[in-house]
Amino acid sequence: MAAVAKACHAADPAGPSPILLLPDKDADGLSAGAILHRTLLRVYGVPDAAIRVHHVGRGASPGSAAEREAMAASQARWIVVLDQGSRHGPGLTVAAERGWEWDDSEAPEEQARREMSDVEPRVRSLIIDHHHLASGEVGPKGALMLNACAYEPVATSALLTWCICRPLWTAAESDAVAGPSQSQLAGGLVAHTESEAQAALDYLALIGTCGDLGVQVKWAPPWPDLEPELKRCTRKRIGEIVSAINAPRRSPRFDVSSAYLSLLTSTGAADVLDPQANRHAAGLMEARSEVAAQVARFSHTAPKFSKDGRIALLTISTPYQVHPSIATRWAGSLRGAKKLEGVFCANVGYAADPPASDGGQRPVHFSGRVAKAARDRGEDPSLIELLHSYASRDATFLQDLCEEEGVDHTSALSFARGHRQASGGIMPASFWERFTLLMGIGERPSPDPSASSPRKRSSAAPTQNNKLTSYFKRT
Q: Quick one: 334 and 254 in the same domain?
């Protein structure tokens, strides 16, 4: 982090070299971005003009061609992607494919100046994430990967960013009593007290973590004890903030930057939804009301089940991104399903109509959650594995999808992304129809002889009434 800050100051004689932050659009990603952004500003003294924030487009990902072009056009020398997934693919920019390699024996300022003389200066990219990363995968080519998915309990991206940044706020303060190694680490940092660090970062970590895991999350080791901060902020307030921060990305207006600025410019949890302190608060609340109305409207959609009973699928059509919320609601209500593992909601109306040059197929966005019925049975199904098990019923399905999407590997697809407990994806409508056939959605299950009713078992195997004793009379 220190190298980033020093190089940023020194690399360009005409002005600071830009640092580009790409936080995800939800409470976790936006909080992670605000934590890092605030640390660069207040601990390392990076000029505000040197930090740029880019929000990827609606339904897009950092790996898409349009987003890679936008990152290259920013001319940033440092790119940090937060909570956007860790999918395999080409570098975030062509220059980022050269990798993160850094010569620790050379001063950051000198190394930055030397690299600026290259025909194509190196771009260093960092991924901070907690989404599923399969064994052997490394994410975008050349990126430094920091992913918590393999370490239980899995820290959210905001909590992971907090763990990186929080110690830096007080590192300079402890420099006077630290050894030489600590002094070198703390060189150039602006000193902050523990209470200042707590006030600046802890509530943001709460908002991000509770955004993904709920306000009832347990702050037990190895996680930091943020329970006292949660009590100060109150669970009710944090829950309201999470709902409001998540609303703009679910609305067709997609005003994600207002949600981000609401966090970045706040001085505490109480400011975020206060119209007097936050000029964006009214817009957040309006978006939240619109989203709530859409959730209420589509929550009554009836699900259809897969032939094997492991999947319940609801299909809706709305430009609002409410399919994850619908899946969450139904996942907790279908408690009597004996084989149910996951509840999915497909939104066929979320994406805009594509250009005719793209074949005219509107993509289907779908999202799923582990069914409470499965947890009640003591099971812990992986939705990622479940989706792949259905896809494997057609040996060419994923390869055909790769060809359709123009990617060279299935791990680059927007399919079965996310987490074990919450997964989903995006695919063209024709492939979605093909996938629902693989799942057997709406098909009657095959009869199970072992599960026949007592009456049927009785008629199938009648008891013998003609016994030997019936031929004799008692005298």
A: no
pLDDT at 106: 67
Which residue positions in the chain have pLDDT lower than 50? 9-11, 13-14, 176-187, 357, 468, 470-472
pTM of the prediction?
0.86
- Cβ 2 vs Cβ 46: under 8 Å: no
Domain identity same for 317 and 182: no
pLDDT number for residue 327: 97
The helix-helix angle for 2-10 and 108-116 (nearest 10°) equals 50
Rounded Cα distance, 403 and 244, in Å: 39
- 468 lies in a domain? no
Contact predicate 272/266, CB 8 Å = yes
Map tokens 């009554």 to a residue: 300
Q: Strands, E, within 317-391: which ranges? A: 342-347, 363-370
Strands 415-418 and 422-428: antiparallel
For 306, the 3-state DSSP assignment is coil
467 belongs to a structural domain: no
Q: Containing domain of residue 217, as a range? A: 2-264
**Predicted pLDDT at 362:** 85
The pLDDT of residue 11: 46
Burial of 457 (0-12, 13-18, 19+ CB in 10 A): exposed
Clarify whether residues 101 and 14 are in a common domain. Answer: yes
Q: Report how far apart, in Å, the C-alpha atoms of 101 and of each of 46, 89, 146, 270, 295 are.
A: 22, 19, 15, 42, 47
Residue 155 falls within a domain, yes or no?
yes
Q: Within this chain, do residues 259 and 329 fall inside the same structural domain, yes or no? A: no
What was the pLDDT predicted at 186?
41
CA neighbor of 310 nearest in space, from 242, 393, 198: 393
- CATH number where 154 lies: 3.90.1640
Say what the pLDDT of residue 238 is.
Answer: 98
SS (HEC) of 105-145: CCCHHHHHHHHHCCCCCCCEEEEEECCCCCCCCCCECCCEE
In total, how many domains does the chain have?
2
Residue 208 and residue 241 in contact, taking contact as beta carbons nearer than 8 Å: no
Domain boundary residue among 264, 290, 318? 264
